[in-house]
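Figure S7 source data.
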Amino acid sequence: MSKNPLSDNERLKRESNLLRGTISEDLKDTLSGGFKGDNFQLIRFHGMYQQDNRDIRQERQKQKLEPLHTVMLRIRLPGGIVTPQQWAGIDRFASEHTEYASIRITNRQAIQLHGVLKHNIKPVHQLLNSLGLDARATAGDVNRNVLCTSNPVESQLHQEAYEWAKKISEHLLPRTRAYAEIWLDGEKVQSDEENEPVLGNNYLPRKFKTTVVIPPQNDVDIHANDLNFVAIGDDNTLTGFNVLVGGGLAMTHGDETTWPRLATDFGFVKKENVLAVAEAVVSVQRDWGDRTNRRNAKTKYTLERVGTDTFKREVEERAGVKFVTSRPFEFTDRGDRIGWVAGVDNAWHLTLFIPSGRLTDDDSLNRKAGIAEIAKVHKGDFRLTPNQNLIIANVADADKAAIEALAIKYNLIDTTVTVQRKASMACVSFPTCPLAMAEAERALPDISQQIDAMLAKHDMLDKSFVFRITGCPNGCGRAMLAEVGLVGRAVGRYDLYLGGNSNGTRIPRLYKTNQPTSDILSTLDELIASWASQNRETGFGDYCIEAGIVKPVVHSPVDFHSA
Ligand code: SRM
Ligand code: SF4
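Tokens for the predicted siroheme complex:
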């Protein structure tokens, strides 16, 4: 383990009195809209990030005004399931009490509310509590929202897999009463009466991400995650899970000690061992992760430093479980099936394409109002997908026509959206993300249109490739698992990565760096032309490898940064 001093985040976690800090006192300070000192970071463990609108930052600076501080609040939704009543409550709050009046579906099946003013923070936590929801551990150095393959349509395994996602989420939550005390006026407890048996009183070295996935779908993008449970069934009965550890996508421009990494296969475990294995993986990372350098603190770096066999043996020892050889499985797809599908249980499910997961009534489309109207009559539930879309799930035959009429009325069904647009994703980026270097969500519509035009030119509109833009190398848009990925460098400039594959099991390689958007599009135009003329039946990412345009990344810690 490194002899370097611990990072300052370690001090603040240690001194935080199990995540309380002085947040309650800070809330009373109405002179500033922001949080002071350690509280700025500590509120993340309670599911919030302090932000300001970057579009108006300079203007406020000129006027000698403090940035207009608000928080972005992320709601915890394991497996992305929300009831219509919960949706209605969230929608009302977003409309009446947030700066942007939007609901943002994230690519980890959560909901983000941007622009919550300080005096509205406590009320929103209380509202969530009254709806049976919370924002616990959706940010900070803890296990985040647990993903589960969202599509209930194709698999008998879904309900049980979803129950496991919920159980894992609950099991790995912080146990501190800080959240209840600060936001819900819960009874105060002496923190020395409390402990964090799983996460440890200093919490984890870095964020930690977990999924439950049902092949052949890889909608959750397992290789972006620290810990993955791949559901294995016999005769439609769940028997257990293959476990894959140590995926992650973030990197830092110019720092070759950082890289995206695919998760490593540890083997199969029976379903009754899931919580023990989850706890053991978390606890090994808790104890062995690097707490001196946050850039190298995630599980992927711990695995490479100590060796995957050593890490795996320690997990077996702590869990009291032996991994056996993984059961065969195959991923064939990551996208959502937009439109109506009858599920295995004969209920109907309508998947709506929501551009970048953004629901707002600020445009003429009124999609946010549309979902609110559907919530008033819908008797099933809503499911958020890791592709930032929304499923109106479990609709009875008799209710189908009414739901569809509302979806059409509020522009939620758009038959002109191309397959390529559906396979494209962007992170939030400007104006709310403080780390953004280039546009992503706001740039995607225009870039997508131009890519569609290129495909049309070559009579390829029925083809698509996974295309993703991320506003900085933190990689929230999962460009590092795209067939074509753009990673922001500066406003209007990106690195272009090529050669990932359609099912998300290969990391793409840098092809051109720091290019203006127009040059990236010209390059893509040429590449699509050669794909169309030479081998249009091969996926574009595979074509880039086969044609020698880029070499495949085989083991990224070793070869990601080589030419
Ligand atoms: Fe992310 C930080 C948005 C998925 C890697 N991410 C951020 C913050 C909170 C910026 C900040 O720290 O102040 C962004 C807020 C922007 C805003 O205004 O809303 C942000 N990340 C998002 C979301 C909303 C992107 C989206 O368009 O859907 C996703 C929220 C997921 C959720 O519900 O929890 C989101 N972030 C991801 C993913 C993809 C994934 O997990 O599947 C990644 C890459 C996978 C990984 O973790 O390796 C990702 N986000 C990061 C990182 C880099 C972490 C690292 O290992 O270094 C940061 C910065 C950090 O943690 O220091 C970050
Ligand atoms: Fe912000 Fe960067 Fe994440 Fe995009 S990738 S949301 S710009 S941190």
